[in-house]
Amino acid sequence: MSLPTADKSMMTNERTSSEPSEQNTGPHQVPMSQWISCAPFEQLLHMHIQEASDGKAVLTMPFLYDFAQGKGLLHGGALLSLADTAVVMAIKSILPPSTHFATISMESKFLYPVKQGFVTARATVTQREDRILHGQATVYNAEGKPVMEFSSVFKIARDQKKSASTES
Predict the structure, then answer these.
(1) Number of domains, the chain
(2) Residue 14 domain flag
(3) What is the CATH number of the domain that holds 76?
(4) Do the domain assignments include residue 99?
(5) pLDDT tens series, the chain, 168 aa
(6) What is the pTM of this model?
(7) What 3-state class would DSSP assign to 86?
(8) In a domain, 166, yes or no
(9) Cis ω on the peptide bond leading into residue 27 (within 30° of 0)?
(10) Which of 55, 67, 72, 133 has the largest CB neighbor count within 10 A?
């Protein structure tokens, strides 16, 4: 059985004028202005931290043209990134600054497509067992309708070296 081949004329991997001609693929040191703040990837997605305290966080993100998938809906990866980051900020609100931790698993359920406007993620740390933290988030569209349910598990690193770069 042969698989269909992609039409090469339909594919593009062109760089924009804002991209450097030589890409530095890391490792990168990322200085953060504050413990609870957006890293470069979150800034790229125009995420905004509305609040983060007591194991809860609220983040927003606009649906920009660059975040659309082929049918004009908000790309699921952008929604996942928002939900994951919201849980990260909820976790950061209860951990000491510079604690190193990372996402080790996540699960999502897409409920409704996003066609326009801003999306809001509301996240909560639901459980902590030693170095393991569980979180959940719900992402809402501009009308307040849930569009995605998300849960994740994070692990705090054993080696707590103080570093300018942190988690996911």
Answers:
(1) 1
(2) no
(3) 3.10.129.10
(4) yes
(5) 554 554 444 444 444 444 554 788 889 888 888 999 999 999 999 999 999 999 999 999 999 999 999 999 999 999 999 999 999 999 999 999 999 999 999 999 999 999 999 999 999 999 999 999 999 999 999 999 999 999 999 999 997 544 434 444
(6) 0.81
(7) helix
(8) no
(9) yes
(10) 133
